[in-house]
Amino acid sequence: MVADTSILVLAFALFLCLILSRWYNERKNNINQINRIPGVKTYPLVGTTYMFFGKSRNETFDVLLKEAIRFPYISRLWIGPFPQVCIRKAEYVEKVIGSTKNLEKSFGYKFIRYWLGEGLLISGGNKWQKHRKIITPTFHFSILETFFDVFSDKSKILIERLDEHCGTGEPFDIYSYITKAAMDIICEAAMGVSVRAQEKGTNTYVDAVYQVSQLIMNRVVRPWLHPNFIYKHTKAGKEFHECLQTLHGYSADVIQLRKMTRKEKLPLNGNGEVKKNRLAFLDLLLEANENENLLTDKEIREEVDTFMFEGHDTTTAGITWTIFLLGLHPEIQDKVYNELDSIFHGSDRKVTLSDMSEMKYLERVIKEAMRLYPPVPIIGRRLSENIQLDEYCIPEGCMIKIDLYNLHRDPRFFADPETFDPDRFLPDSMHSRHPFAYLPFSAGPRNCIGQKFAAYEQKAVVSTILRHFTVRAVDKRHDVKMINELVLRPIGGINVTLHRR
Ligand code: HEM
What we know:
Distance between the termini: 97 Å
Structural class: alpha+beta
Number of helices: 19
Bound molecules: protoporphyrin IX containing FE
GO molecular function, one term: monooxygenase activity
Number of strands: 11
Mean pLDDT: 91
Strand order of the largest sheet: 1-2-7-4
Order of helices and strands: HHEEHHHHHEHHHHHHHHHEEEEHHHEEEE
Helix content: 40-55%
Cofactor: heme
CATH class: Mainly Alpha
């Protein structure tokens, strides 16, 4: 009996040794593969995250810029024991996101999950597929068309707010004004709820978004803050928890408000039935919950959190960086104004869907602004299989950081990359470019679901501002410090002066 047990224990120990040695060899092999990729010196426990220690928010972004200069196209980082391969070359990016593989998000998104849950941005596998299928129709062309009144009405309020600064010669930060307009737009268009952010002073939701994004980015590069049982006892962890309560409380209120007013507000057709093609995004989610039980209450909250954040913070950045560049380039601003004048002939009428295709030059301007300042500067994936990027074999399971900011500065595709030149997006120039050289909305199956909405909103808001004001930027490009806290934002905002047309 004793002999039998000993044999069993011995067999189990041998089996364990075998598993461990296989795991060890595989890990060693993977580490060797990763370490063949150029990168800064690695130290035990912290990996390469020491680069970020003691750095201020904008210095953190500078670290990434310096890394890209030192190691163009590809480099490796170690976030503690976890390797991360950073790519900035169109051909490499195509290999990672150009197929239906590698659909899972990377490790860093884990910390966003506490805020956005298993919403579309974060989730993976069957859940992501199912939700993407349910949500895609809400961004159908016919629905987008119905949002133009919202774009116009909220832009009109924005103009009234901006008018207070007009002609004073006093610079002011336009970023906060655009943020509130973008909040009003996403809440009204997608959620069917009027939050009147522009009519109120501070917005607790917006403040909490900034704070939570900063806390998440800080946590990602500090491996000792990764375990929850440590983080929740820290000052940052407590602040994070408070922010989550504000953010989740706000989205719960939005859902509640829409539930209450939904029945009265839905437009009816001649027979008194609800017109399907006028449903807001949130209505569709609520329908999926009520009628077919396709989504739970929690899933709806997570999608509302996701779309409120993705739907306002990104477009705010896109619009404000565009205004900044136009404010620095009066000659380009004049060209945009002339185009707008040829469409609107000086009238104050609302912007419509058919105007969009007329704003060809403005479209190029916005595209070029998103090239230089991509609102989402970095995205991440987890590899579902080994891939070969030139001489480097990157093992399955590795995290890939796709650096859109530097991808957009590849001189092979964008000569003199720092120059602001909207004509890079003339059809001829675009056709001859690598399809993965410019990806502000990412690409492949997990591309931005709201990109058409965003493109229209940006054109609608920027055109309305320029129809009313001449904009001058106060600071030069090198004076404006950037932070990458999920979205690429200017520290201290964008200071401008306005003059009435
Ligand atoms: C200029 C504005 C915008 C930019 C530059 C932008 C950019 C992006 C990028 C780069 C991604 C991929 C993220 C990743 O892989 O981690 C993404 C995904 C996403 N975006 Fe946008 N976005 C913008 C506006 C919007 C708007 C207005 C909405 C909603 C109304 C939206 C909703 C989403 C969602 C839900 C995803 C996740 C899609 C999925 O994984 O299936 N975005 N966006």
